[in-house]
Amino acid sequence: MSNTNKEVSVLGLGAMGVVIARLFLDQGYKVTLWNRTADKADALVARGAVLARSAAEALRASRMAVMCVYDYRAADAIFAMDGRLLAQLTTGSPKDAREAEAWAHRHGAAYLEGAIQAAPDQMGRPDTPLLVSGAQAVFAEAEPLLKVLAGGIVYLGEKASAAAAMDLATLSSIYGTMLGFLHGARIAEHEGFDVAEYGRIVAGIMPTFAGFLQHEGAVIQSGDFAITQSPMRISVEATQRILQTAQEAGINTEFPAFAAGLFQRADAAGLGGEELAALIKLLRK
Ligand SMILES: NC(=O)c1ccc[n+]([C@@H]2O[C@H](COP(=O)([O-])OP(=O)(O)OC[C@H]3O[C@@H](n4cnc5c(N)ncnc54)[C@H](OP(=O)(O)O)[C@@H]3O)[C@@H](O)[C@H]2O)c1
């Protein structure tokens, strides 16, 4: 089952797929390519990759294939995979991943679900994060090859859906932060601040904030919401002040209204005297 002859097929040559193929070429792999729009392979073919005439031909060419296309609808282009190992790096939902694994198994292929947590120009580094899940033996076979793409692999166990679920949980965290950041940028520009300076200040507090998030995750897991770091009532007040500031400034109020509304409901439910993370009790309802 090992991939000792260093060969791999790459299906999908968008912004991410091109980088994936290039990283394998850099490491001396025999790389077979397929992309719906064939001419995106030209520069890689010039560097020694082989362009297959169809997705099926690309899949037959190597024991292992990495797929990275726009979404799972695009991924349906795959077929005829007997005896192959597919590493699916296309972003999807846990249900998408479960269905793709069942589909691959019906077609005689081993399956791994992967979630790239980096931009194309961050790929191929020793610390590039990649979440992976699927059968342990399949992961053991694919790990050396996936390490070419990302040194920071986190294996999340046998359930194929795990990588997709953890990816979306992480993205939820990022988009929540991003929305708050953008509202903060409106405060900054309304007050006449240099928004780039605001970005630098936010970047400066991120390591501390990351430690705080880790703490709140541990609190939720423990089920003990006694105050250890940040009382909920502080956030009830702070989000009210952000909302008030938006109203006074006449800027968009959607984000603070949403955040302040949640914290007020938590307070009304009697959670104000607990650790901030107790808000999850409201979200569980
Ligand atoms: N870029 C990032 O920063 C990043 C980071 C983490 C994860 N990802 C994930 O990586 C995956 C690919 O992202 P990307 O940035 O490479 O996207 P992209 O640049 O938009 O490329 C999309 C790829 O999907 C193919 N495709 C789209 N619809 C198709 C269809 N109906 N049939 C066959 N192929 C189709 C495109 O083929 P054509 O060339 O023919 O259009 C192209 O190869 C996504 O799931 C994304 O969420 C991306």
Overview of this structure, please?
With 285 residues, the protein is of the alpha/beta class. It has 2 domains: 3-158, Rossmann fold; 194-284, N-(1-d-carboxylethyl)-l-norvaline Dehydrogenase, domain 2, CATH 1.10.1040.10. The chain is 53% helix and 13% strand. The protein has helices at residues 15-26, 42-46, 55-61, 72-75, 94-106, 136-149, 161-190, 195-222, 232-249, 254-268, 280-283, and strands spanning 7-11, 30-34, 50-51, 64-67, 85-88, 110-116, 129-134, 152-155. It has an 8-stranded mixed β-sheet with strand order 3-2-1-4-5-6-7-8, sandwiched between helices. Helix 6 (136-149) links the parallel strand 7 and strand 8. The radius of gyration is 23 Å and the shape is elongated. Bound molecules: NADP nicotinamide-adenine-dinucleotide phosphate (NAP). NADP nicotinamide-adenine-dinucleotide phosphate (NAP) binds next to helix 1.
Write the layout of secondary structure elements.
Layout: E1 7-11, H1 15-26, E2 30-34, H2 42-46, E3 50-51, H3 55-61, E4 64-67, H4 72-75, E5 85-88, H5 94-106, E6 110-116, E7 129-134, H6 136-149, E8 152-155, H7 161-190, H8 195-222, H9 232-249, H10 254-268, H11 280-283
Parallel strand pairs: 1-2, 1-4, 2-3, 4-5, 5-6, 7-8
Antiparallel strand pairs: 6-7
The structure holds NADP nicotinamide-adenine-dinucleotide phosphate.
The site of NADP nicotinamide-adenine-dinucleotide phosphate has 21 residues, from helix 1.
What portion of residues is helical? Answer: 40-55%
Class of secondary structure makeup: alpha/beta
CATH topology of the largest domain: Rossmann fold
The CATH superfamily of the largest domain appears as NAD(P)-binding Rossmann-like Domain
Give me the strand/helix succession: EHEHEHEHEHEEHEHHHHH
Number of spatially distinct domains: 2
CATH architecture heading of the largest domain? 3-Layer(aba) Sandwich
Ranges where pLDDT stays below 50 over 5 or more residues in a row are none
From the N-terminal CA to the C-terminal CA, the straight-line distance is 47 Å
Number of strands: 8
Instruction: Assign the CATH class of the largest domain.
Output: Alpha Beta
Overall geometry comes to: elongated
How big is the Rg?
23 Å
The tally of helices reads 11
Distinct compounds present: NADP nicotinamide-adenine-dinucleotide phosphate
Mean pLDDT: 93
Widest sheet, order of strands = 3-2-1-4-5-6-7-8
